[in-house]
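Forwarding the complex inputs:
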Amino acid sequence: ETTVTQSPASLSMAVGEKVSISCKTSTDIDDDMNWYQQKSGEAPKVLISEGNTLRPGVPSRFSSSGYGTDFVFTINNVLLGDEGIYYCQQSDNVPFTFGSGTKLEIK
Amino acid sequence: EIQLQESGPGLVKPSQSLSLTCSVTGYTITSGYDWSWIRKFPGNKMEWMGYISNSGSTNYNPSLKIRISITTDTSKNQFFLQLHSVTTEDTATYYCARRGYTSFDYWGLGVMVTVSS
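Prediction (whole assembly, two chains):
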């Protein structure tokens, strides 16, 4: 099983700042990493899928990079509406596994 | 528009079985893709539990393999989760989701299940 280690656990940012979230995997997963946003009371929403591919309709403020075992998710110019919990998830092998989540608060 | 909706009891007693239904609209589950159950524990940890494919084959998380069953009713376009011998550790919000070619691209809103006597 591939363990996904996500950091930090929480962030408190001001509007306009840049957010960076790290995920490290215990095995090489190529670029089979997905990133989700979950707002309070809503279902998780995929923002970026394998190959660092931005999903249709997702603003270009969101991006990711990484290959192998080290991955970074970035939000440029963070907005109030970006509050929520962000998860990474590897889709290289079963069982699919998630990072522990990063709670983003906007000051 | 593809929509998924979970339903089932919100309270289950320890040692009993948890049974949930996922109703899918806007897409026929036998047409393609895999159909998963995912849960989120208090404290926000997420766990993929397993999936049933569009052809009916299943793949379960080894941590749950002896307790879990995922089945379908294709006539109703629904799929189901059964989790046996539950304990308080199974208290979580349960989501059904479609796995697209890469990611979980459609999710239900989730149903909170508490295991308590």
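Chain B has no helices and eleven strands.
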